[in-house]
Amino acid sequence: MEDRIYELIKGWAGIPTWHTTHPMDQERFSVAMHNIVSELGASVDIEAFENALRRHAESNPAMLGAPEHWDNLVNEFAIKAETIFTYEQAR
């Protein structure tokens, strides 16, 4: 499942600015979440999501202003994703 999530979030997390609040990054996150739920359903292993996101974060090219340590950001987005998955399960 982790490898499939990795591919599904590539359009968002594969962009060096994925973690910013820029509207384009927020839109890419929304599209990635939609793609995950559409293909895998809402019962996604959040640990697999975190691992896939961490793989993207650690492979992004270094850029000015990029965090040196991704744990807090990965955790923040995992919480957002988990909230979306929980909502989708309840619908």
What topology emerges from the helices and strands here?
Elements lengths: L1 H7 L1 H4 L9 H18 L5 H14 L11 H20 L1
According to DSSP, the number of beta strands is 0
Using only CA atoms, what is the Rg? 12 Å
Count the DSSP helices. 5
Report low-confidence residues grouped into runs of 5 or more: none
Number of structural units classed as domains: 1
Residue share in β-strands: under 5%
The biggest beta sheet, please?
none
Brief overview, please?
It contains five helices and no strands.
What report would you give on this structure?
Helix content is 69%, strand content 0%. It has 91 residues and is mostly helical. Helix 1 (2-8) crosses helix 4 (46-59) and helix 4 runs antiparallel to helix 5. The longest helix has 20 residues, at 71-90. The relative contact order is 0.18. The chain has one domain.
Keywords summarizing the entry:
0% strand, mainly alpha, 91 residues, 5 helices, single chain
